[in-house]
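Appendix C reproduces, verbatim, an entry submitted by the partner laboratory led by Prof. M.T., so that reviewers can inspect both the input and the predicted structure.
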Amino acid sequence: MLKPGQSLAVTGAAGCYGGYVVQLAKADGLQVVADASPADEALLRWLGADIVVQRGKDTAEQIGKAVPGGVDGLADGSFQSSVATGVVRDGGSFVSVRGITFHKTSVRDYNHRADLLDSLRAQVEAWQITLQVAATYPATQAAEALVCCPAERGFTPASIPWISPARPICSFLI
């Protein structure tokens, strides 16, 4: 659920679904970005759209330019989910007239599941999954491995130090 002041992009905004979404979003205090043909721009401004971008193949790019960093939510009324979801910032919301369900995936959602982690370990050992190794250290330098890869090189605290029981090394996985 979006809160007043947050942004919502609406595709198909001049249609029945989109027109209602624009009005309801504006009534809830959201910043509304709508797509429309030039002929429908006045209608959308009257319905409450704060920003109107030209409908077309580059609608997502135009929304991204209008709201740098992405919108907080997207109501897809014109079946543009395959191109438009990229304008929704991380943690944002997406709704569509299509019957598609999006699911977030993150290592942090599953890192407490020993059964899944053990299954991944077995897949690595069977060479079904290839690990991306950023650096390798002797096991005696495991502490250094935890600080070896700075964030400016793209490594995050989610990177995992892996100490192989089969070999005396410590690899820093990304």
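The chain has two domains: 7-96, 107-173. Additional entries are available on request from the coordinating office.
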